[in-house]
Amino acid sequence: MSQAVERRIESLDDLRDVASAFDLTAAVCSIVPLGSGNVNDTYLVEAGDQKVVLQRLNTGVFRRPELVMGNQQMLSRHVQKRLNADRNLGEAGLLAGRRWELPRLICTRDGGCTWHRCSDGGFWRTTTFVADAHSVDVIEHRRQARELGWGLGVFHQLISDLPVEQLADTLEGFHITPRYLEAYHRALVHTSVPSTPLGQECLAFIRERELIVSLLEDAKARGDLPLRPIHGDPKINNMLLERSSGEAIALIDLDTVKPGLVHYDIGDCLRSCCNRLGEETTDFDAVHFDLDLAAAILEGYLAMASSFLQPVELGFIADAARLISFELGLRFFTDYLAGNTYFKASHPEQNLHRAVVQFRLVASIEAQEAALRALVQQLSEPTALTLAA
Ligand code: GN1
Ligand code: MG
Hints:
This protein is of the alpha+beta class. Helix content is 44%, strand content 12%. α5 (197-207) crosses α11 (350-367) and α7 crosses α10 (317-337). The model is unreliable at 1-7 (pLDDT under 50).
């Protein structure tokens, strides 16, 4: 598993030099930070009429960034082909004529490479910007929840026939929950958990759930759950919604596209969408997993994904919601103990607070487990799937 995040603040002149290395249609006129990613640094660049996204990949996390780019190129070729074929089918296609985009990589001016290495070792790449779109940090209404699920389903459907063995494992151990538990135990050797109420709450919460961490990995090892191409990080604000219609039109942040279980993605989507207060709240007592939103998300998701998912995979959806929330809490808490070296934090307690939010969400999922299972079961019935589609 990767370790320290590189922290570097670029000057505007440096950024302009980097952006100018890419084959843009005009001279760079503005560069501003974009989004709220916890790992990479992202900027919106304007060059004449053109808008592009410039990103510095965190090579402390992505140790082999060329492999990340290789996966992205593979993904792009596959998805563009599928989208072209689908557009030709119009109303009869998978998307029934709806808009869907995948940001395209922009090559460098000299050499036509999809990334640029700076003299300081910085690894940069540029992609097209999806116009007239926005993302949300918390769900605004039920219809939006359905769109967020539908968007993940479209993404999974478009990559469901991309041979998984062609993708590199760019982030070893990513979403392998038992590995995060091991990392947590290693952190405990060097640090003791502060005797504050929140620190002790996390310690006890993890201790009580050590036995669940291998649930998905065991099912994978048994051969019950297949490895598939996945997004890896489909949290709520990585889904772009068209401004005018509110429809999902793109899933961005493609660094973690690699082999995995669809459950990592479904769990991440559910945990980030069904927490109405968002990941950064400090109103811990009010954190709640909204089952009604989960229903809307899964309706949207299954309308697209049920055609290729196996029944056994549907059976682990409720477990995934619980486990991926728990895993992220564990990751945040471990990083807090280790001195906030992985996730960007604006104050020393931020990763502790983020961990508490995820653990409260887990507790809420556990309290509603029977209802969540019943919901998945009901939505997986053939009649429900036909209606959803
Ligand atoms: C990180 O950088 P960002 O915000 O896209 C993390 C995800 C977490 C997320 C939590 C490579 O994603 O796994 O779910 O923070 N990405 C990596 O906000 O570790
Ligand atoms: Mg990401």
